[in-house]
Automatic annotation (TrEMBL), chain A:
Annotated keywords: Cell inner membrane, Cell membrane, Membrane, Transmembrane, Transmembrane helix, Transport
InterPro entries: MetI-like (IPR000515), MetI-like_sf (IPR035906)
TM annotation in the entry: 68-87, 99-120, 132-152, 173-195, 231-252
Domain ABC transmembrane type-1: 61-249
Biological process according to GO: transmembrane transport
Tagged with keyword GTP-binding: no
Subcellular location: Cell inner membrane; Cell membrane
The protein's name in its UniProt record: ABC transporter permease
GO cellular component annotations of the record: plasma membrane
Topology in the lipid bilayer: Multi-pass membrane protein
TrEMBL record, chain B:
Transmembrane spans: 33-59, 79-106, 118-142, 162-189, 222-244, 264-287
PANTHER family documented for this protein: ABC TRANSPORTER PERMEASE PROTEIN (PTHR42929:SF5), INNER MEMBRANE ABC TRANSPORTER PERMEASE PROTEIN YDCU-RELATED-RELATED (PTHR42929)
UniProt-recorded name of the protein: ABC transporter permease
Superkingdom: Bacteria
Record has Ion transport as a keyword: no
Family: Belongs to the binding-protein-dependent transport system permease family. CysTW subfamily.
Domain (ABC transmembrane type-1) ranges: 82-287
Lineage of origin: Bacteria, Bacillati, Actinomycetota, Actinomycetes, Micrococcales
Source species of the chain: Cryobacterium flavum
C-alpha cells in the first residue's frame, strides 16, 4: 500500500511536469508588457488584437487551415482505400507493404524534410498548396490507416456478403454498409490527419516560401528572428484549435469502443 | 486512441480468403489491389523518392564519389556533433525509461477508472504541438525566467544555463517523448501474470530479487519497443535543440540544415541525412534481434 501511495505521488508529479509548463503560455498571451518575462505584468488583449489585425498572421492562419483541411480530405480518402485494400488482399509481401505505408512515422523527420526540399526544388513545388498537402499527407496517412484498420477489424464480413447477396453493388455496399460501420475510425483518423498537418513544423520549415507559410512556420520564424510577443497569443490559438479537434477525436474513439464492446 | 499493434494482428482479420470455398469462388480477386494504388503512389513519390534523392545527392554532389562520406567521417566536428546527438538521445531515452516504468506499473495496479485517467493524462500533451510546448519552456527556463528567479531568491545562485544547454534540450525532449515510452511499457506490463510475484515470494525471493529476476525480464518487450521509439524520434529532433539548445553545441539535424540551407553544401548535408537514416535502421535491426516479437510500431499513438 505504501508503494502504491508513493507511486501515486510520483505519478502526480509526472503529470504536473507534463501539463503545467505548457500552460504558462496562456498568461503570457495576456501580458501588457512587450516582453516574454514571467510573470506577465497587467492584463491586456493587445497581442490578440495584433494577431487579428495583422494580415501576415491571418494569412498564415488561413494557409494552415487550408492545408490542414485539404490534407485531411486527401489523407482520409487515400487512407480508407488503403486500409480496405489491405484488409481484402492476400499475397506475399503484404506485411511489407503495410509497413511501407507506416514507415514515414519512424524515419527522422529532418531526413524526409531535406529530401522533400530537394525534390520540390526540382519540381517547383516549394511554397505551393499541392506541395504542402502532399508532404503532410505522407505523415498523416499512417494515422488514418491505423485507425481505419482498427475499425475494420470490428466489421463482420458477412454483412458485406449479405449486402452483395441482396443485389447491392460494391460502391453501394461500401457507402451504405461498410462506411457507417467504420465511421468512428474514419472520424478519428481524419481528425488526427488534420491536427498532424495543422501542427506540422519540420517538413513545413523546409518546403515553405514567402508566398506560403503555415502558422507553425510563421511562429518559428517570429521566435528565431524577432521577439514579437504576439506569438504567445498565436500559440494559445493554435493550442486550443488542436486540443478542440483532438477532444472530438477522443469522442469518436470512445464511441467505437462502446460499439465494439 | 489506437495502438498500431492492432494492425499487426492479421490473424484476427476476418479470415477472408482463408476460406477455401470463397477462394475458389473468387480465384483472382485483383480489384482490392486497385485500392492500394493511391497510397502506394503518394508514399513512393513523396517519401521514398525524396529519400532516394537524398542518397543520390550524397554520392553525386558536387561530383560522383564518396567524398561527402570521407568529409563526414574525417571532420572531427562532425563526429563531435554525431556523438552529442546520440548521447542526448540516449540520455533522453534513459530519463524517459526511469520515469515511465513506475508510471506504467502504477497503471497496472489501479482501478479501471484511475487507469483511464492516467492514460488520458499521458496522452494530453500530444494534443499540443511541440512548437508551443517548446515556447513555454523557453519562457520558463530563460535566464530572466521564473525558475532562475526562484533559484536566485531561494539559494542565491544563478542564473543557471537552463537553456542554450544540453539540460534544456534533454528536459524539453523527455517531456515530449515520455508518452512514447509509457504506452508500450504499459502494454507489456499489463500482460504479465499478477500471480508471478507472490509465487516468487512464496519460493523465498525477496521483493527486490523477485522484481529483477521475474518481473523486469518479462517487461523487456515493452522496454525495448519504447526505448527504440524514443531514441529514434530523439535523433531527428530539430525544433527543440534549435530553440532550447546552444548554437555552439548543435545537433545533427541543425548541422544538416546549416549545410543545406546555409552553405548550399547539398552533398555534405545529405550524407549526414543518410548517416542518420542508417543509424536508425541499425538500431531497429539490433533491437529487433534482441527482442523478438516486439512490434516496431507498438505504442505508436496519435
Amino acid at each position: 500500500m505504501t508503494l502504491k501511495r508513493a507511486l501515486g505521488a510520483l505519478a502526480a508529479l509526472i503529470i504536473l511536469w507534463l501539463l503545467l509548463p505548457t500552460l504558462v503560455i496562456i498568461p503570457m498571451s495576456f501580458n501588457s508588457a512587450a516582453s516574454f518575462n514571467f510573470p506577465p505584468q497587467g492584463f491586456s488583449l493587445q497581442w490578440y488584437e495584433n494577431f487579428f489585425t495583422d494580415p501576415a498572421w491571418l494569412r498564415a492562419l488561413g494557409s494552415s487551415l487550408q492545408v490542414a483541411l485539404v490534407t485531411m480530405v486527401v489523407a482520409t480518402s487515400v487512407g480508407i482505400m488503403a486500409a480496405i485494400g489491405l484488409s481484402k488482399v492476400r499475397f506475399r509481401g503484404k506485411a511489407l507493404l503495410e509497413s511501407y505505408f507506416l514507415t514515414p512515422l519512424i524515419v527522422p523527420g529532418i531526413v524526409i524534410a531535406i529530401g522533400l526540399y530537394s525534390l520540390f526544388l526540382r519540381f517547383n513545388l516549394l511554397g505551393t498548396l499541392p506541395g504542402f498537402v502532399l508532404a503532410h499527407t505522407v505523415v498523416a496517412l499512417p494515422l488514418v490507416i491505423i485507425n481505419v484498420t482498427a475499425s475494420l477489424q470490428g466489421v463482420d464480413p458477412r454483412l458485406e456478403q449479405a449486402s452483395a447477396t441482396l443485389g447491392a453493388g460494391r460502391l453501394r455496399t461500401f457507402f451504405s454498409i461498410t462506411l457507417p460501420l467504420i465511421m468512428p475510425g474514419v472520424t478519428a483518423g481524419a481528425l488526427f490527419a488534420f491536427v498532424t498537418s495543422f501542427d506540422e513544423i519540420i517538413l513545413s520549415l523546409f518546403i515553405q516560401s514567402p508566398q506560403l507559410q503555415t502558422l507553425p512556420v510563421k511562429i518559428y520564424n517570429s521566435v528565431t528572428q524577432a521577439s514579437d510577443p504576439t506569438v504567445a497569443a498565436v500559440a494559445v490559438i493554435a493550442m486550443f484549435t488542436s486540443v478542440l479537434v483532438m477532444l472530438t477525436a477522443q469522442f469518436a474513439t470512445r464511441k467505437r469502443k462502446r460499439v465494439s464492446a | 486512441m489506437v495502438h498500431a499493434t492492432s494492425t499487426h494482428n492479421r490473424g484476427k482479420r476476418s479470415g477472408d480468403g482463408g476460406d477455401p470455398a470463397r477462394l475458389a469462388r473468387e480465384p483472382k480477386n485483383w480489384r482490392p489491389f486497385l485500392l492500394l494504388i493511391p497510397a502506394f503512389v503518394i508514399v513512393s513519390f513523396f517519401f521514398l523518392a525524396p529519400l532516394v534523392d537524398v542518397f543520390i545527392r550524397s554520392i553525386s554532389d558536387p561530383v560522383l564519389g564518396i567524398q561527402n562520406y570521407v568529409w563526414l567521417f574525417t571532420t572531427p566536428t562532425n563526429m563531435v556533433v554525431a556523438l552529442r546527438t546520440f548521447g542526448t538521445s540516449f540520455l533522453v531515452t534513459i530519463v524517459c525509461l526511469l520515469i515511465a516504468y513506475p508510471y506504467a506499473y502504477l497503471m497496472t495496479i489501479v482501478s479501471d477508472r484511475t487507469r483511464n485517467m492516467l492514460q488520458l493524462f499521458i496522452m494530453l500533451p500530444l494534443w499540443t504541438s511541440i512548437l508551443v510546448r517548446t515556447l513555454a519552456w523557453l519562457v520558463l527556463l530563460q535566464d530572466t525566467g521564473p525558475i532562475n528567479g526562484l533559484l536566485q531568491s531561494l539559494f542565491g545562485i544563478g542564473p543557471l544555463p537552463l537553456i542554450r544547454s544540453t539540460f534544456g534540450v534533454a528536459l524539453g525532449m523527455s517531456q515530449v517523448l515520455l508518452p512514447f515510452m509509457v504506452l508500450p511499457i504499459y502494454s507489456a506490463l499489463a500482460k504479465i501474470d499478477k500471480r508471478l510475484l507472490p509465487a516468487a515470494a512464496n519460493l523465498g525471493a525477496r521483493p527486490v530479487t523477485a522484481f529483477f529476476t521475474v518481473y523486469l525480464p518479462l517487461s523487456r518487450p515493452g522496454i525495448f519497443a519504447g526505448s527504440v521509439t524514443v531514441f529514434i524520434l530523439g535523433l531527428g529532433f530539430y525544433i527543440i535543440p534549435a530553440l532550447l539548445g546552444s548554437s555552439k553545441e548543435i545537433m545533427m539535424s541543425a548541422l544538416m540544415y546549416q549545410q543545406i540551407s546555409g552553405f548550399l553544401m547539398w552533398g555534405q548535408g545529405t550524407a549526414l541525412g543518410i548517416f542518420m537514416l542508417t543509424a536508425t535502421i541499425v538500431v531497429l535491426v539490433l533491437v529487433g534481434r534482441l527482442a523478438k516479437g516486439t512490434s516496431l510500431f507498438a505504442g505508436r499513438v496519435k
